[in-house]
Design a protein that fits this description.
There is one protein chain. The chain is an alpha/beta fold. The chain has one domain: Response regulator (Rossmann fold). The chain contains six helices and six strands. A six-stranded parallel β-sheet has the order 2-1-3-4-5-6, sandwiched between helices.
Amino acid sequence: MNKNRKIKVHLADDNKSFCKAFADIFGKKYNFICSSASNEKEFFSVIESNFPDVIVCDIYSCFDNLEVLMQKILQRSPKSKLAVLSFETGEEFVNFCLACGVKGFFDKAITDIDLMNDAIEKIDKGETIVLAAQTVY
């Protein structure tokens, strides 16, 4: 992989303030696309026009079914890796996300920017990363 290549990251969240803050923090390091998608159609419109390397998505913003979401992402942007962003961090939910093929899980309570940067880079390389306020595994 080219070390000078900027990873193309897309954040999808229905909270516009959160999207802006996330973009302000990560926008300089990554080729960052932020959309406050409020439904599946808006989400895929951005994905299909940009084909990001890593998609960070608050799944409750737009989706009811993570398994269906993963299938659709794999069909429409097969090289993208999905990371879930959520306040729900129970072990059962995290394991369900990973079983659906998610490569990353970010607790919305995580505030360590270096940790998140490292996680995004590892996810881009195909590693599976979980960042939760209580546990990092």
